[in-house]
Design goal:
The chain is an alpha/beta fold. It is built from 17 helices and 15 strands. The protein has 3 domains: 46 residues; 113 residues, Aspartate Aminotransferase, domain 1 (Alpha-Beta Complex), CATH 3.90.1150; 224 residues, Aspartate Aminotransferase, domain 2 (3-Layer(aba) Sandwich), CATH 3.40.640. The chain is globular. The protein binds pyridoxal-5'-phosphate. Pyridoxal-5'-phosphate binds next to helix 5 and strand 8.
Amino acid sequence: MSADGSNERGRPPSVDRLARAMAEVDLPHAVLVELARAAIADGPDHWSSEAAVERAQHHRATLLAPVVNATGVLLHTNLGRAPLAVHHAAQAVNVEFDLNTGERGSRQAAVGGLLATLCGADAAIVVNNNAAAVLLVLAALAHDRQVLVSRGESVEIGGGFRVPEVMEQSGARLVDVGTTNRTRLTDYSKALARKTADVALVLKVHPSNYRVEGFVEDTPVEQLATLPVPVVADIGSGLIDANTPWLGGPPPVWLAGEPAARQTLAAGAALVTFSGDKLMGGPQSGIIAGDATLVATCARHPLARALRPGAHVLLAVQDVALAYLQRDAAQRIPFWQMAAMPVDELRVRANAVVAAAGVGDVVDSEAIPGAGSAPGTVIPSVAIRVEGDRLAVLRAAHPPVVARTRDGATLLDLRTVHPDDDAHLTAVLRACAS
Ligand SMILES: *Cc1c(COP(=O)(O)O)cnc(C)c1O
């Protein structure tokens, strides 16, 4: 039967009736009306109440909501990268107000100061994301001038971040140096020595999400720093310190080779740029840290206003910076909690879930950092394996569970699941079994 009560195919239900048939789905009436119109336009197969409710449910599932990440990818770009709890009251914040003087203050001063201390920099500012950080640095420091980039680092990071295109948008002129697989210091110095050279800076880009092996050579920051122009290093993933002092032990092997902000600046980079929501474990943001004069030039550029974060993001970055400085990052930053959880603990949790759910078995698995961080490395982990492809059922749970399949089975990796979600996982798996 169609929604308007008539069985006549060919005569569409009224928009209003169809919209009311969808009222059980938690969406505003105006949205349901649009969905009803679309259903009517799509033809008689879409006119029943059942089809309409299904359409509304599909639409509801497109809204942003918390999900359980059981993929084993710690920084899953499609799932918002680093998980972070943000609780801010509906209160005013002294974002641009100096409580000591009662005058207007800088939104960047406090957070920037903490980040600078953290990275061993003179100064730092926060922008919307790392793409914005690179764009701002190039626009502020190299507009209409040349920027030297190794051919091996003229990369695409994904999601539309391509070094030559960002360069073009900034108004800086890309000068390729070296070759795809090998670039030496002399390649940079030759480019600098050209008669027409008007080089503003050298940009070193961490290739992030891929790795070239074999006959390859790049020029480390230590060597680039001997050149007579500033070196800007886009380290991307935002590891703060290669020694990971917040973990209270040696750095985990999966971090090997990942560039870190502190060490890159100590090696002589004038500036580093990185994402706040990758290995730093903060909210979506981009950080520019290093030489005070260069940071100030970036902060003064008109684009800085367009790329600045709001008070909520600044508060969250501040919390994260304080956690690192108080050596509390392993306890207070969810990303490091999940990265550092011992495999044995994951196995205990997995066994408990499987026993309570009465379905699945516990298998060793390999989680990955994700978001282009430490590519090619894995973090030992534990997963629950359930026969068959259960992805759609898991996604339909409230909250949805996102997992992956391998060899005809569904794998739920516990490293990326918060322990508080184990009970939900148990309930969802129990439903899978029945
Ligand atoms: C991730 C990454 C970017 C883009 O950062 P967003 O924060 O996603 O804008 C740029 N450069 C490098 C090297 C990266 O790894």
